[in-house]
Amino acid sequence: MVRAGTHRAVAENRPAARKWRRAVTGWSFAAPFTVLFVVFALLPVVASLVMSFTDLRATDLRHPFAVNFVGIDNYTRLFSDAQFRRAAVNTAVFVVIGVPLTVVAALAAANALNSGLIRLRGLFRVGFYLPVVTSIVAIAVVWRFLLDPGAGLVNDVLARVGIDGPNWLGDTRTSLASIIVMAVWRNFGALMVIFLAALQGIPVDLYEAATLDGAGRWQQFRRITLPLMRPALLFGAVITGIGFLQLFEEPLVMTQGGPLSSTLSVSYHIYNQFGFGNYGYASAAAYVLFVAIVALSALQFRLLGARDDR
Amino acid sequence: MTARRDLIARTVLYLILIAGLLVVVGPFLWMLLSSFKPEGEIRSVPPTWWPSHWTLVHYRDLFARLDFPRYFANSAIVAVLVTVGNLLFCSLLGYALAKLNFPGRKALFLIVLGMLMVPGMVLFVPQFVLVSNLGLANSYAGLVLPFLAGPFGVFLMRQFLLSIPDDLIEAARVDGAGEWRIFWRIVLPLCRPALATLGILTFLASWNNFLWPLVVATTDDKYTLPVALALYSIGQNRIYFGLLLAGAVVVVLPVLIVFLVLQRQFLRGIATTGLK
């Protein structure tokens, strides 16, 4: 009797037991990552949001009860802060001008390398990719010398063709533009690799058919290449945009945000506020940046989705 | 006629590409050559390409007068620990997400994926508060811990593992192998290409990482190379051009060598994942 009873109990339990075992196995594989992830990523994301509604300062860390909730004060202060507004405009200009230039340069390089005429394709690909893998800090140090008004290579090249080059990083009219050009120089190789992969995915017979129909190179590019590359182009633009929104090392090393805040970026402003000990305020600024990044990503999904529906 | 037009087109294309290559690689060459010039020649107007007088004085300064051996070691230690951590933790979770069925799996994947969008600027202030309260500010643990488990690696490992047929794993299960044994003996060896890609990308990202070490390393015995270089370049050493250029070479050269040796794997990995 007893034996039969336990036997039935085990049988009833079996699916539940198996489910339990699966959960234990799955989570034992997931646990190491998840613990670190929760403590050092998930918790900080939430904490940052909470902090952005407080007046937390560096000096409060030992007296957590001195911290007050201040509602959206940090956010309203942010948008009346002339420095932040300047930083936001600079960052927007950097993204709006820098991203299209990067995409166009990458598209040109990818098409040139894909044209079939080119030998040594590997050499060019590796060469164009070099700046992508190197430290931005190191690149910024080198470019600071290249752009030096007297001893810099850039103005030396310009002088040879009779142009008197400006003080690139020391003049408010050229400082941000100089950093944009450097960013395009550093980043187009990354997109070029993605675009090359997309180009190689376009069926060759499409071009053959177009050639038979008498379409020229330019027409083929506009009617075949561009439309078929749309997802890759959008993806590249968004990835680059997300990176460019976080502009930080270049102005820090090259201009310290100057002259006259002409190269101050949002990230640099956040870092400065952190340095002043204004943790709550810095978190609010960081969340504004975060929202901009999420909006940009959402835009990509929207645009790609719109195409798929058609 | 068409042959001639093709030749012209090809020549023009080559000229443009070579010009582009010079513009991209030129600054690196100038950096390398100038780091061997005496201070006076680096500042000379007009600038020179080839050193008229070779000197190692800047490298001697970096390694003897300044603490660059220490920064180099710090960068290497941090990058190795971060890479090992990501290879291990991301492949464990990637395997669980791709091949094991457990409650909360989908939600976990979505949350980890969402974290890809979160910029370091949002994380570093609370991370700094946390690490300081744990007493880990200005320590190797503080430098490494927040980067041991990155979402990108999970994404990469999961995608790769989805392409491995279930039959292999099922067969081992039928043979009575435990889940951990299956993971170590069958799954990880199959993952070698993905692990190589993840390892290279993680190592480089850590080597070049700037914001976090800048914030958490407060005394110069814990600086990594980019932090030391950036602080020298805006501190009192900013006027020693040769020193800064040699410092940039020390930061860049190991990465360039790794990249040039492994470029095939590297560029393939990037093209397939579509991420930097």
From TrEMBL, chain B:
TM region positions: 12-33, 71-95, 107-128, 140-161, 182-205, 239-262
Membrane topology of the entry: Multi-pass membrane protein
Record's keyword terms, sorted: Cell membrane, Membrane, Transmembrane, Transmembrane helix, Transport
Keyword Lipoprotein: no
Keyword Chaperone: no
Subcellular location(s) of the protein: Cell membrane
Gene3D superfamilies in alphabetical order: MetI-like
Domain of life: Bacteria
InterPro entries: MetI-like, MetI-like_sf
Domain ABC transmembrane type-1 stretches: 72-262
Pfam entry (one): BPD_transp_1
Sequence similarity: Belongs to the binding-protein-dependent transport system permease family.
Name of the featured protein: Carbohydrate ABC transporter permease
